[in-house]
Please model this.
Amino acid sequence: MSAERKHREEIVRYGRMLHQRCFVAAMDGNLSVRLDDDRILVTPTCVSKGAMRSTDLVVVDREGARVAGRRNVTSEIGMHLLIYRMRPDVQAIVHAHPPTATGFAAAGMALTEPLVCEVVMGLGCIPLARYGTPGTSELAKTLEPYVPHYDAILMSNHGVVTYGDTIEHAYMKMETVEHFAQIALVTHLLGRQQPLSGVEIEKLMLARSKYFGHKIAASMPAVMARSPEKVS
Ligand SMILES: [Zn+2]
Model:
């Protein structure tokens, strides 16, 4: 099977999973894979990610102009182009509106409290970018400060974007963000949070570089909400 055909089938599979898990509704969400230096394979606009065929996908150049495919490219292509431009290590991007994480984004709340060790180790934290109108260059601009440092970003009043070295890893980060948002929500319902200490966070960061090495390539997804010197 050619590499492009494999990527087409993977995008269809993870698109269906986004839909099955209610991470998207109607025609929402988009996924892409970098095919080579000049071409990106991306989902079209106005297609349910639960009923997409591999032939629905579109290939665009690094400017976002369509070079293959019949359908129109997603209106959120600017966000994908920005991430590929800023992060040469990124090979795939997933954007969705998972309800709990998007609830935090709609409440103006970042997911930056270090509440769960696996999340600190895998993603550091999930910052909240300010609001930008979808389909405009304004949206991509809001993400710009975070893209070099984080692999998952909440988009105010909109949703979540995650990315990685494969579409599988990009998708898994989306699951992690939504799962963590549910856990964070439960701590809010319980009225108590017990964040990890700065010392414990440092140990996780060490373990992170040992276990994941270059596979997690965000430069330093530090936990922003809490610095070691503040810990008692
Ligand atoms: Zn969206």
